[in-house]
């Protein structure tokens, strides 16, 4: 496995031992770099901690002593740890660079690197790109926010292998030299203000994706998103737009076909994925894979068979004429509005979750096809007010997902869509959106 060569740092503090921290610490130790590890909750006797100690890591557990920074010239932090953390704050005060493990990836991977970010659609687009390159018979790997730690994956990639990395704003904020050969910027909306504090901070974190690109690189961007377009004057990369509305250079569509430049790639009626947001994701993926020479045949093979990513407008089953969709990844208003626009049939909407202080007026224009709502979590009352404003007569508030599915089924008729699309994060009741989605699908399969 590859290790870091000519790495400019000699002693590194790894803050947070989750998957990314553990992978980064092992990489650094294998590269003969001195490593300290600090974690608030890790168990001293755990296999992960013991393995790092056996390799020579100095481990601090249970608190965040500022002395852990003494002699350190780089911090690699877990992306979810906020910059208000006392160790992170002190590192910044001392002038110690603070990065996430994604930064290490660029020191390892030598082949083409495609980085994908956006407020919505990252995982679907990353998956499409990966599958299209794979269908074309080219070596490819996938990593990042999609599930696999990128610096760990990069340790075993070949020099001719394309690496596709899904990148969150948390990860990108901790980059200095990270430079994708192809940057894919899907959209920009309000999100994660509890972490970034201001919308500008959040948008600027996303813009780190393109900060180090040169004229030799490509920037695939959403030409329909004015906030992204506002960053383009500072972009050095070759710009490749995608658009639902304009016949731009790059990837675009009319009522019949998907195009790249002037060439029709395939017919829209052959595409399996539903929804306008997925059409944007498809255009972005087509534009991205064209930068690495993928054929139309490979694109066609993927788009005629790919039915979606789990928890992202995922078709679950049909039961007594009702169609059940799991969109648990819809953790904000925009994602839920996209889901609602995906169906012509009447919808029973299941929604609610963590209260981040948002109101839900932004959903009002998309509730006209909703015949009933079943609500849960901290935002249930707020969403009930919005549903009432929309003139929805059937409004139920429940405590559990099984209750939600049972109530939704009772409201529904044959040919209705029963849609879990919460418009909120899951952390008030569930550890992850995946757990929430799994509870939904389990409840659906328990229906009698």
Automatic annotation (TrEMBL):
Domain of life (superkingdom): Bacteria
One Pfam family linked to the record: Mur_ligase_M
The reaction(s) this protein catalyses: UDP-N-acetyl-alpha-D-muramoyl-L-alanine + D-glutamate + ATP = UDP-N-acetyl-alpha-D-muramoyl-L-alanyl-D-glutamate + ADP + phosphate + H(+)
Keyword Calcium belongs to the record: no
InterPro entries: Mur-like_cat_sf (IPR036565), Mur_ligase_C (IPR004101), Mur_ligase_C_dom_sf (IPR036615), Mur_ligase_cen (IPR013221), MurD (IPR005762)
Leader sequence segment: none
Protein's GO biological process: cell division; cell wall organization; peptidoglycan biosynthetic process; regulation of cell shape
Class of enzymatic activity (EC top level): ligase
Pathway in which this enzyme or protein is active: Cell wall biogenesis; peptidoglycan biosynthesis
Domain Mur ligase C-terminal: 311-424
Protein's UniProt keywords contain Cytoplasm: yes
GO MF entry, a single one: UDP-N-acetylmuramoylalanine-D-glutamate ligase activity
UniProt-listed Enzyme Commission number(s): 6.3.2.9
Residue numbers binding ATP: 118-124
One cellular component (GO) term of this entry: cytoplasm
Record keywords: ATP-binding, Cell cycle, Cell division, Cell shape, Cell wall biogenesis/degradation, Cytoplasm, Ligase, Nucleotide-binding, Peptidoglycan synthesis
Subcellular location: Cytoplasm
Domain spans labelled Mur ligase central: 116-289
Role: Cell wall formation. Catalyzes the addition of glutamate to the nucleotide precursor UDP-N-acetylmuramoyl-L-alanine (UMA).
Family as reported in the entry's similarity comment: Belongs to the MurCDEF family.
Protein name (record): UDP-N-acetylmuramoylalanine--D-glutamate ligase
Lineage per the UniProt record: Bacteria, Bacillati, Bacillota, Bacilli, Bacillales
């Amino acid at each position: 496995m590859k290790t870091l060569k000519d790495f400019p740092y000699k002693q590194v503090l790894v803050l947070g031992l989750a998957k990314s921290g553990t992978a980064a610490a092992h990489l650094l130790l294998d590269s003969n770099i001195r490593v300290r590890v600090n974690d608030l909750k890790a168990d001293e006797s755990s296999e992960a901690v013991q393995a790092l100690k056996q390799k020579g890591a100095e481990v601090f557990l249970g608190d965040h002593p500022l002395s852990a920074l003494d002699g350190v010239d780089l911090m690699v932090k877990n992306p979810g740890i906020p910059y208000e953390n006392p160790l992170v704050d002190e590192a910044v005060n001392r002038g110690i660079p603070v990065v996430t493990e994604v930064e290490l990836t660029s020191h390892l991977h030598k082949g083409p690197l495609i980085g994908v970010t956006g407020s919505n659609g990252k995982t679907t687009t990353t998956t499409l790109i990966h599958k299209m390159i794979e269908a074309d018979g080219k070596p490819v790997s996938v990593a990042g926010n999609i599930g696999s730690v990128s610096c760990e994956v990069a340790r075993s990639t070949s020099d001719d292998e394309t690496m596709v990395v899904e990148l969150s704003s948390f990860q990108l904020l901790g980059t200095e030299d990270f430079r994708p050969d192809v940057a894919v910027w899907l959209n920009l909306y309000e999100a994660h203000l509890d972490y970034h504090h201001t919308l500008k901070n959040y948008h600027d974190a996303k813009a780190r994706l393109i900060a180090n690109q040169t004229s030799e690189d490509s920037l695939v961007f959403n030409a329909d998103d004015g906030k992204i377009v506002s960053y383009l004057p500072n972009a050095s990369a070759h710009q490749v737009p995608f658009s639902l509305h304009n016949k731009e250079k790059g990837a675009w569509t009319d009522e019949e076909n998907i195009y790249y430049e002037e060439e029709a790639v395939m017919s829209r009626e052959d595409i399996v994925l539903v929804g306008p947001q997925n059409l944007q994701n498809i255009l972005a993926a087509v534009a991205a894979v064209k930068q690495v020479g993928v054929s139309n045949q490979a694109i066609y093979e993927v788009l005629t068979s790919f039915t979606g990513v789990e928890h992202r407008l995922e078709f679950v089953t049909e039961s007594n004429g009702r169609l059940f969709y799991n969109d648990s990844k819809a953790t904000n208003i925009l994602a839920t509005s996209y889901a609602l626009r995906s169906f012509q049939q009447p919808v029973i909407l299941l929604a609610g979750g963590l209260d981040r202080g948002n109101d839900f007026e932004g959903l009002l224009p998309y509730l006209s096809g909703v015949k009933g709502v079943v609500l849960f979590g901290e935002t249930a009352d707020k969403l009930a007010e919005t549903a009432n404003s929309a003139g929805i007569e059937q409004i139920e508030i429940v405590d559990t997902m099984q209750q939600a599915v049972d109530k939704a089924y009772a409201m529904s008729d044959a040919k209705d869509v029963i849609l879990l699309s919460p418009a909120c994060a899951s952390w008030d009741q569930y550890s992850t959106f995946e757990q929430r989605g799994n509870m939904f699908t389990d409840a659906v399969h328990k229906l009698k």
